[in-house]
Description:
The structure is a homodimer. By secondary structure, the first copy, chain A, is α/β, with parallel strands linked by helices. The first copy, chain A, has helices at 22-42, 68-78, 96-103, 137-147, 158-161, 167-176, 180-187, and strands at residues 2-7, 46-51, 61-63, 84-87, 109-113, 119-124, 152-154, 190-194, 200-204. Chain A is built from 7 helices and 9 strands. The first copy, chain A, is globular. The A-B interface holds A 95, 97-98, 101, 113, 115-117, 134-136, 138-139, 156-162, 168, 171-172, 175-176, 192, 194, 198-200 and B 95, 97-98, 101, 113, 115-117, 134-136, 138-139, 156-162, 168, 171-172, 175-176, 192, 194, 198-200.
Amino acid sequence: MRVIVPFATREPKTRLAPLLDTEERLAFARAMLVDVLGAVRGAGHVPTVLATEPTEVDAPVVVDDRPLTPAVNDVLADWTADRLGVVMADLALVTPAALERLTTPDADLVLAPGRGGGTNALVVADLDFRVDYHGASIRDHRRTARRGGASVVEVDSFRLSTDVDEPADLVEVLLHGDGAARDWLRDHRFELTVDHEERVQVARSGR
Amino acid sequence: MRVIVPFATREPKTRLAPLLDTEERLAFARAMLVDVLGAVRGAGHVPTVLATEPTEVDAPVVVDDRPLTPAVNDVLADWTADRLGVVMADLALVTPAALERLTTPDADLVLAPGRGGGTNALVVADLDFRVDYHGASIRDHRRTARRGGASVVEVDSFRLSTDVDEPADLVEVLLHGDGAARDWLRDHRFELTVDHEERVQVARSGR
């Protein structure tokens, strides 16, 4: 199956600014992209990066500088093969096994909810479906599918639910990641700490 | 399988204090407990509540006023049957299907990681195993099992990873819950809102 991996190159991951400067955020975002592309291939699928500008990466790149929703819908509008996947580039915990759970169900639409109401990954078999990534998109995608009479399966995956946006998300990468993003954080001296309330955080040690 | 559901009755869910007063937090915590007990039964298992004080609930209650770790380890020390489950009482998204994924694997230890490094649910077959819920407990539980030569399976479940501690977690209950906790929030006028950065939040509407 072809799997589209949208990747925004401009000012990626702004909510990580308390921990990472602009150049670091771009490098970390690319490390996550590499992990996602590897997992897509590991699950036996074929990735295409849908980037906001030309990007050097080990996969075909389609450039579309529009926001996420119209860019993905443009791909969906042109798609003629059986099924198409869309997997976000910041799922640093994704594994081939998690992606197989996304691509195996036989349904018009398979959804992987993201924490906070997003839709982190999906597979579309019903080609009339269009995405809308604004706000609580998982709810909107359910409703759209229901209205169109499409069958929907939701995948219950912690790994697919974890998009890395905020400092707290780096905890998950250090605890559960095993790829380029985890290595990037370690190489840049991030480590786990536990605060006085027993909450786990990340901290960056001195050089 | 017997499944222990630890439940703290004193000052539960203090991090929800910005949204709920003490009495409400207790009522909401009990609604989540009811959902967890229902899911345990729905998956064909038998729950016992391990509570810090006598609690009226539709299940056997063992009272132990010590902290979570010694209380659970006391149960583990006495346990003589084949396997034992421990499932936290604040997993408001849990379903029988998610619990079946926890109880099905044939391993000495099955772990369901919680967001933020916790261990939200586990099944122990190796009875020498003891829990330690402090800090990044999922990492400690992995290490302990590895040292003891136990086989470990981790369950990749968004529903099991979501313990409800903070206001942001209520978003998940409203979006993905379908039981008493979701109903409690709706009855108390909680609803989803989307802020100017497209982040989904909960808000409480006026009476």
